[in-house]
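Suppose a colleague, Dr. K., hands you the sequence of a protein chain of 206 amino acids and asks what its three-dimensional shape might be. Before reaching for any lab equipment, you can write down a predicted structure in token form. Begin with the sequence itself:
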Amino acid sequence: MAKFDVYDLEKKKVGELELADAIFAGEVNEHLFYEVVKAKLASDRSGTHAVKNRSLVSGGGKKPWKQKHTGRARQGSTRASQWVGGGKAMGPKPRDYSYDVPKKVRKAALRSALALRNQDGKLVIVQEWKPAAPKSSAAAKVLAKLGAKKALVVDAGANEALAKSVRNLDGSDFLAVEGLNVYDILKHDILVLTADTAKKLEEVLA
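The predicted structure, expressed as tokens, is then:
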């Protein structure tokens, strides 16, 4: 079991927390980052790109000129792709780019991301953070004291006051523990967890 310092919001050490080595101090497999981040970015694509083909372009129902004896090339419709204003040949159509990564791979990648932040000294665990009301300026001061001006803060989704306080800060974001993912961990410089959140992640990723 690895031991982690637990701080209050003034970054004064208030205790220690033992967490499983396999979750927070294991081997870092960077290839797993590539796999899960690629899958997330692909799933985020809207895939709504589209163009009109000749069947969707209006007009052009009549043959422009007769087939023979005009000295011009044969044409069947002004909606054909070679005409100005005609339909696009073999253009893009709406599609779904998303695909699933196996659950074991997602869990292993998340363990690697947590281990990476721990190795880099960019994992901060606080005892608790439950503001009485949403206030971004107060949250900014806390993050500054923690040395985490641009951080990903993770706690229970029910902590709405904290979520609203952090989400307006430039470069920082809040995620419910259920939505923690590799992309957001790697995107932010510092990962801030509450003690309860760290224990929950240990249970889920075991």
